[in-house]
Design brief:
The protein is an alpha/beta fold. It has a domain at 1-77 and 129-169. It has helices spanning 11-24, 41-51, 96-101, 144-160, and strands at 3-8, 30-34, 68-71, 77-81, 105-109, 122-129, 135-142. Strands 1-7-6-2-5-4-3 form a seven-stranded mixed beta sheet. The chain starts with a strand and ends in a 9-residue tail after the last helix.
Amino acid sequence: MKSLRFESPGEECTLLLGRAIGELLAPGDILSLRGELGAGKTLLVRGIARGLGVPHSVRVTSPTFTIINEYSGRLYLFHLDLYRISGPDDLETLPWQESLFGNGVAAIEWPERLGALLPSERMEIEISITGEESRGIGISGRGKKNAARVEQWAHKISDLMKEPPCRGI
């Protein structure tokens, strides 16, 4: 499986990386976002939303208590934060399946809480804290379709990482 690894020196770069990812997304894409509390998962989703054309006037926040936030752009973005659930049974009353299997894009924080229900076709994004402001960001494609797409993503994202505010790492 092909994977990419980038170093973000700060929030501006992470937002730009998210924006680039958002511009590359297609209907039905699922992003699995992993990382400890405070790693920047929601910040990355904010950038993804901008790349999908969600207006800057729309506030993109963590759905920690609502579980799912929805945003309208070029594609519909479903942002799921499963931190407060203990397992898939806690989602019975929420439209989580429509979020994952519709024509929009799903970005899932704490995807391990879905257990066996986490779709096998997805893009995995791992964010690790490497410093006070810096983050290591790994991207890999799961499933045949997404593994091939990582190569396409590599070119656009690698070019972005050479530009300010990302350059210099």
